[in-house]
Protein 1
Amino acid sequence: MLRTPLFAASAATFALILAAGCLPAGNAVGRPPSSAAFVGSETCKSCHAEAFASWQESWHSKIVRPAQGAFLKEAVEKWKSDGTNAGPTVGNVTGKTFKREDVQYVVGARWKQRYLVKNDQNGNLQFLNMQFNRASGKWEKYGQKNDWNTQCATCHTTGYRITAFDDKSGKTLQSDFKELGVGCEACHGPGSAHIVSGSRRDIFNPANVSVQEQSKVCGYCHIRLENGKWKTAQGAPREDFPAPEAGRSYIAGDDWTKWYPQEAIIPGVHAEDPFDKEYAGDLKGLFLRDEQSKASGLYEEAKHHQQYQGFLQSAHYRLGIMSCITCHAPHAGAGKLKKVADHACNSCHDDSYTVEKYMPNTGKTADNLFVRSHTFNKQPRQGGAGAGSMGIPNYYGD
């Protein structure tokens, strides 16, 4: 059975959006040509200095960084022990012992931090066995036993592509990318042609497409799925979503919801994978499925990085009146301040509508630490602790 997208904007909805002025009338939607190459955010800086500076302060730019200067200060101080739990010492894939000096990259800082060391068996990167929880100030077990390059890198880098794989098993053997972190081209597509021509027709701008298509750009990474086409180096189904062909990268604006649908399980996106189903493996416990959910028909996120699957259920999305970038923006623009998501509700609603009330922290991301729901339930739950309860991270050496 061919899987199909569960939600799609109708022609009538798109026409209403255009009439309402949400799309720039007469401005053709830009798209990088097939020959375009990724050039890196530093290249974009020369013409888009304001956007670049604002992006540099974003969490997108900081999701993966070289270790030097990026360790959380408290994690370094407690590297051997937090007083209860021992710190990270073992590579999850190889089982070999490592020191802090062996860490090549750190992942995250806002909620928690994880650590990447070399897998000398194949040249990839692997996680250490413990992650640092900023809320508790404690070490907690992290059991991801697949190479980072073949499990997470699609959404933690820009321009990621598989370059070699095993035909029989589907294992990812080699891959590369243009840039660590979520750079300019993750949302705008490869920029080489735009640099040469200077034309907006040679670059993708999410602001120039329908609200559903805008959200789909964010949804490519803010989602949880099981990928049966591409496997990790260790042979497990991937949890990210590389492009269908080896050598090809995702390009912003691609309709990834139609990629190899019979080999991927994407709850809430494919009609055959409904929100209210119980899944297995990493997808087990994906959404809250209690009586409150069944009564409202809204299944709030129970895990992290699945905001898109929460938002698809909302009236905001279904009515075509909002997208992710209505409230969020990864950078400021020329003459435009960067959006503050916490203030977005009041642009349409009275002061009784707050993110604390209608976006409770339901998606678990670490022990007693949760990410906001994006279903906008009219009868919201009580949420747990989130990033808003923590201050700005302090880095070792600052």
Note: The first strand starts at residue 64 and ends at 66.
Protein 2
Amino acid sequence: MNTRHAFLALCTLPCLAMAANTGSAFYGDGPDEHHPWAVHDRNRPQPVRVEPGTPSTQEQPGKPPSDAIVLFGGAASDLDKWEADKKPAEPTKWEVKDGVLQCVPKSGYIRTKEEFADCQLHVEWSEPSDIEGESQGRGNSGVFLMGYLEVQVLDNYNNPTYADGFAASLYGVNPPMANPLRKPGEWQVYDIVFRKPVYKDGKQLDAGYVTVFSNGVLVQDHTPLEGPGGHHNRSKTGPFPEKGPLKLQDHGNPVKYRNIWYRPLPKRTIEGATEGFLTEEATKAKRAEIAKTVRDDAAKLQGNAKTLRLLESLCYANDEAALKEATASVDAFVKTVQALPADKVESKKNDIMSYHTALQYLTHFKNIPEDFGATKDLAAIVKAHGWDKKK
């Protein structure tokens, strides 16, 4: 049986001690120096279940996803989650009317009491339907990520202004790619993905970025950060605070907000996460961790199931004790098969093929020596019975 056929045959291997339908052992390309997981790795953690939300309409806000942290959901009590952006902090003068958070002009910015950083953020806002002013003087406000980086809020439905001050711009840094705003008085929707810059020892490891959808239209496409942005002066790159509040701007216009929520995002690989393309050092450490988990699982099993699980652990990292135990078990199994009458060998076909395919895989990816004791004996048994023939 060639290597490719061996890989395909493993689709039929049992998922020993694993949840149903999570894949097969010894199947896709194995872990390498930058990827701790195999391709289609059944040991890889399953995604966390999140119940999706519902879309908003003009008449009512939608429902956030189940893991969202709601900053304003329409209740008057939600105002307790906010405060005036002052030192020392004091209650905000913004108001909640009919489930809507409304800016009271000249009362000042507001900020969340909670602080956070990388996130998926959802904000809905509405401009006054009575049009007043022009350019930056019409329905001006802003969403400040971490209280630091402004995504502009402005009535630009039919109101030109400087491009890097447009609605959905990273203010003073990058204009939006399009202007999909609805008419004044209608609800506008921002969906924002934010990643702050990552620095270590004063050196930038990741510039950070912002992705923005405005009313479902992509307007900031993984835009790298050039500092916090700002008015008049050029923004300068540098580290952000570890965490910060969400701020909403009072620019003298009675802008309304509703349905504000966020979802924290997991760490990036540059911060120590173990999904994606890793450094060799991080990959080695993660592979050792996975191997130990698989060996610990093997310790709960018996017989061939235990041996196959021990062999599976060798895909991630060599372990002398695991290799020794698996070698002894496979050798003993082969001797048992060799002692059987020819007409009884067929009854062991599934176990024989499981071991044979596992050893073919491990040999191909150099997880075991090419002269691993039982490899040739199993191959000879498989060939003698014609089980290596492509069907």
Note: Residues 122 and 191 are 5 Å apart (CA to CA).
Protein 3
Amino acid sequence: MREGNLEAPTRHPVDWQSPDFLHEAKLFAEMERVFDICHGCRRCVSLCQSFPNLFDLVDATDDGELHGVAKPDYWKVVEQCYLCDLCYMTKCPYTPPHEWNLDFPHLMLRAKAFKFSKGEVTAKERLLASTDVHGQFAGIPIVVQAVNKVNSMRPIRKLLQGRLGVNAQAWMPGLAEQRFRWGRAMNGNARVVTNGERTPGKVAIFATCYVNYNEPGIGEDLLKVLEHNAIPYEIVEKEQCCGMPKFELGDLASVAKAKEANIPVLARYAREGYAILSAVPSCTLMFKQELPLMFPQDADTQLVKEAMWDPFEYLVARHKDGLLKTDFKQALGKVSYHIPCHGRVQNIGRKTEEMFKLIGRSVEVKLNTVERCSGHAGTYGVKTATHAVAMKIGRPVFKAMAKDEPDFISSDCALAGHHIAQGMAQAGTPARALQHPLSLVRYAYGME
């Protein structure tokens, strides 16, 4: 038997519609098998709180072995997993094709789906994961002002903490006064399509809930960069949440409903030769990995997978095709850049870092790249029960991002960026300008 993999990890489909998937005895038998292997390895102890919890449970038994851990205590491991995928993609030596066939994140997904099927996920958690529900108030002037005012008032946040399940100290996004998908032409002015060897010459933009409802400026900056490079684009005709927040709850039926709404629309763009771009790594990953693994036989889902791009994956490939303008005019100075987990596990390399280095050939960019989990992890970082743990996980990142007193801090995941900014502020680091990488590219081009 080999000690570990020499091959790259491969993923098996998620057999979530099988009767065995939610079979309690079979689920716990698989958790016992996997937890026992993890206990004997312990390489993942530094990634998140799931593994320290597991190892502490084992170490507290009489003989230091997993069989002494009570089965109900397994949930202390499951509840700390936020499906970042780092253990699978960067640490575990026993992932397929190794014969032990470990997929810890998807086992945790199975456990979360079991819990959800039993009605054990609270209404507060379900509401927090319903981004299209609370996002519907974005763009309504009086409502936006009221919500944002409440969001900024700690005493009121404290009163609402128990009712909403959101920690009063956690940073929360405000609602946008104007939604990204409102009040603009749905396509760009450039109409000449120039395909490259690696890249389609036209782009369809999946806005994402966050860009549409909370920070439309990120989407605006993406449009400006595309227009500057004469790349025709369309904003996707209609969209719903990608399903990632529901996925993280184990609500796979709602994920399937979101898929049925989004995939037919996106598949049309894929068939027409568009590159589909999403400016939120978790949304991109949903279409690149999780939905294709949930629906491996669905041709349209697989077609969208092949057409989906991270924005910087696309821009760097465009540069390699000789089709990206490099007329950068504005220096960025010192930039601390954070690579989010759901960007790392897409297996595309450090494309945003490559873009910053490309800019650095023309103007001054002193780059500090930090490749470690910030701890935010979607709703995990704001929940009352896990916010403090999220800040603890992010502490090494907060310290690393403060190196050399940067002019800008930045992350492809806007939520992680704000989480990092909050952690740096709590650590006493002087305030730094937080900007999304797309905003910094726009700035480097000299566009206001």
Note: The chain has four domains: 19-117, 123-164, 203-318, 327-444.
Protein 4
Amino acid sequence: MSIKNLIASFRKHTLLKILSLNSIVIGIRLIVSVFIQNLLAETIGASGLAKVGQIRNLLGILTSTSSLGVFNGVVKYTSELKEDETFLKKMFSTTFIFISVGVCLTTILLLLFSNEIAVYLFGDSDFVFIIKLLSIIVPAIAINRVFSGVLNGLSAYKKYAKIEIVSYLLSSVLLVSFLLKFNLEGVLIAIAITPVLQLLVIVFVFGKTLRKHIKINSLKLNSPYTRALLIFMIMSLVSTVLVNFIEIDLRTQISNRISEDEAGNWTAMLFLSKNYMVFSSGLFTLYVIPKFARIHNRGEFKKEVLHIYKTIMPLFGIGMILVYLFRNIIVDIIYPDFKYMEPLFKWQLLGDFVKLASLVVAHQFLAKKMLISFVVTEIISLALFYGLSMFFVNEYGTEGITMAHFYRYIIYFFMVLIIILYSFKNKKS
């Protein structure tokens, strides 16, 4: 095949284009992240890194509760209705009522229980001011989430890449500046106000398109979208809130049972994992959900899943092998004093590989609003992770949590695959 034909083929290959742009974003993130993680490790140590993990997990919970979990619903309906202005108006009218309720409830809870939340997360009330600061930022978190949903629903992957890079670089500069000036407190403040920066970047880069698609004459609940968004809300609250809550609790358990430094080692491993897994989030929302939403038979679904697997799994597998082979160098460069991290790599990487394969298939639940299937599989998966972690941590220490991560996704993969294939068979009959 000539170079001209290869270029033409690449231009038609949406998945490859998204992956290539995501690779650029990830490359920049990884370079910056190496510097930041090293600086954090040297400045605030393992115990400080554990506190950073707690505030990041809290932000994950707030992202879901403040927007009442409408993100995937916005992605789905923006993708399906982008040419229909009337239906989009109704959908966004309902969406903004949802986030208004979410913002009010989340803000009130943060203010009322700020002291209790601070003690639960950090062991004392010294950082209660962070919780109060987050209560002010909640509206920005919710609006940011809706705008991101529109961006993903339109599959605007070029603008998505630009927004990701700019917002990540700005938030990194903010974090480093606050770290050098205020130490750990500065890091927590910078993380708390990052959603405001991200919102400003989205409005600046994507504002014209947002104004074109988000047109609301009046705020009113439209029953078809109310029910649909309620389904996505339950899905999001079950997954995002429970995942982050379990991570917070496991980190607390490690701190209490072993040491805060060990909690920091596991947090550092999670940071690395989330950095190389970040490319999949764009893949799912920009490509998988919109694509699956338009597929209505088993043959097409299997063909698309195999296409995604053949495109991304070999690349992902090679990347993970390289991470494992150079794990000692990675730890020496990024976390020089975190020697006990090395045993965590094997199980975390294996688990993440199976996780990616599982999540590709599981996004059919979101694309087709399969609420019961999603909730049941997610709860079983999270219960397995928590139960296995509690069991293995007694035998293997912190490594036991990464082992639980791997075993949980092996079971989850087959469970999801069986349910989805059965749903197509049942639909056909």
Note: Residues 62 and 106 are 7 Å apart (CA to CA).
